[in-house]
Amino acid sequence: MLSRTADNLYWLSRYVERAEYLARILDATQRLSALPLAYVGASNEWESAVLTAGCATGFFKLYDEANEENVTDYLAFSTANSSSIRSCFEAARHNARAVRTALTMEMWDAINGTWLELKRYGNGPTSREEFSRFLRWVQESSLRYDGSAYRTMLRSDAYWFSRLGVYMERADNTARILDVKYHLLLPDNERVGGPLDYFQWAAILRSVSALTAYHWVYRDSLKPWLVADLLILKDELPRSLSSCYEAIVRNLDQIAGTYGRQGAAQRQARGMRTRLQNSKMDGIFQRGLHEFIGEFITENNRLGGAITEQFLL
Amino acid sequence: MAAAFDEMKGHDGDEIRPAYGELSRWLSEVPPDVLDYRRREAELIFRRIGITFAVYGEADATERLIPFDVIPRIMSGSEWRLLEKGLTQRVNALNMFIKDVYGAREILRAGIIPEDLVYRNPAFRPEMNGQRVPHDIYVHIAGIDIIRVDAETFYVLEDNARTPSGVSYMLENREIMMRLFPELFSRHRIAPVENYPDELLRSLKSVAPLSTPREPTVVLLTPGVFNSAYYEHSFLADKLGVELVEGRDLFVKDEIVYMRTTQGPQRVDVIYRRVDDDFIDPLTFRSDSVLGVPGLMSAYAAGNVTLANAVGTGIADDKAVYSFMPQIVKFYLGEEPLLKNVPTWRCREEEHLKYVLDHLPELVVKEVHGSGGYGMLIGPTASKIAIEQFRAKLKAAPNNFIAQPTLALSTSPTCVEEGVAPRHVDLRPFVLTGRNGVRIVPGGLTRVALKKGSLVVNSSQGGGTKDTWVLDG
Fold first, then answer.
1. CB contact under 8 A, A100 and B245
2. How many domains does chain A have?
3. What is the tens place of the pLDDT at every residue in B126-148?
4. ipTM exceeds 0.85, yes or no
5. Same domain? A88 vs A178
6. Using CB atoms and an 8 Å cut-off, which of residues 238-297 of chain B contact chain A?
7. Contacts of B244 in chain A (CB under 8 A)
């Protein structure tokens, strides 16, 4: 297939996945900021949301401080932010339009329908209720796109490239949350923060839709090191780093199998997958959680570069 | 201007022409709100599928729908056969003319067409001089605009020999009509159009370079998503099952064209290009073009790739050249033209210019290189000021203009605000030419001027489209 087509499919999926992630962050932040100060301390949750979204540089060029109004606007509706939910859906639809022929009717319908409906939300919500509805709608749109891809696409390279986009973006998103909130997850944190942090941990889990999953996996109350374990090493959790890399390796292998050729991208992905498989939380904490996450983000970006170079140019 | 011929009711309006019998009965039975409801349903479907077009010069309306009229335009089988013969003749002559212009130039030497009309024409491509193309076919896809003035008389209004568009509407209009009005379809026997992509692919493959050793690789070259016809490009690529490429997806090495794929370079043999000559190769034509492929013309000259349509076919789109079509048909085929030309005054000729200047309020004046209904004067509906302004323009550069009488385009029943009313229509059939001759899918795209009395059917000027039915027998 055309390199550009693969590139468009890959980014189309990344943008949709990113929009959903932003909606989850905003949802979790809204909950946290609605709690009495005594439960969450003096930290500015809205600033933290901007950091987690990876938009801090652009945001603070426009605003001096982060509050509900400007963060909501910047992350959800702003056209000045190329990674706002609106911009993501615009970019996704632009990519979709460029590869109409590689999409199934259902996928096109999902993405085009989302784009058409986006206009309904105009320049922002008029109330918190409406904003909540908007966030739910974003998540549903992403599910619809993802589901239509999963259920209707031919299992060929087009499908695998679009899946790669999903998992590369997802791995990056999960790693970003960990990068911003890692201090809350250190093993000694329970003593330091005490029950105060319970809501923070819950918010982290909610951002990756893993709050219920946590209880099923551990059958325990929230413990920071277990939250880290779940998000980093648990294959069972679809948004864990480990699970993302299992999928990345699988999709890259499918492509290599069809093309009859392995390359740098396959080797790098397998290297990271092995590293995650051989890691234990104890070891990660000993070497430094923050360093581990930092390295992961760098390596994940490097893999993105390798995929681009090998297939998308 | 005499009263227009109506496709359903003829000249006098007191009889129903046979092809419209069933439709007329159906129109009298169906409650008006059903038509309106179906119209809105059609619009919703079009919006959903994303069949949109862009209008140049309108910043906020980058994607618009072309209005679709749910009442079909109908032709009998015998009417169609007449047209089909005429179109085949005309496109054959066009191909021979273009071959001659870039080859032996017999028609110029015979003094039938003035030399400067060819050599000083901006659409003339000296790069094509002496260049052979596979099977001597230049115009693989032609869109010939036809208007009708009475039961027997069809005129050719324009030959579009470059990159005619609109065929996706022909196909989608049919699909949507079958979905909305299954009952109406069951009452008629209508020639299908859905095989158009198949015929197109067969034509394109048949003109692959002679040296192509295997199954030829065909691609469709688009200027990109911002082009007004982008939907059509992606639609056709999908139906043809070929890659939709942009200039940056292709590159030329050692005079061979390749596309960049996830598995490395792949050789390309036939390019159905929807990019104009000017933009196709920055090394040969406009150097500021980013839509084209550097070196493409060298691969073309080496005979390693086929371009459809060929480079330089725009010479036949020229409206002054158009005025010579009857002579062109006679010169190459030795036959009388089956399709008439609209009588045309060439303002480049002194006597013609004088006549035109004296009769501006009755005439339609067009730019010779114009298209899309831009830059023209429609005398009978223009204000005095507009006419005087145009007169100045015309005097300053008479070579750039031709003039024609204001023809009463036929009308066809159309759904409008106040119910069903006659509106003026034209017809663009799509004529395919391959190694094995000419193929035309019965029908074409009917365009309709939705404004009462308007003769301008172009989508960029508020025109709409209809499904076109050719009946059996």
1. no
2. 2
3. 999 999 999 999 999 999 999 99
4. no
5. no
6. 238, 243-246, 248-249, 259-263
7. 100-101
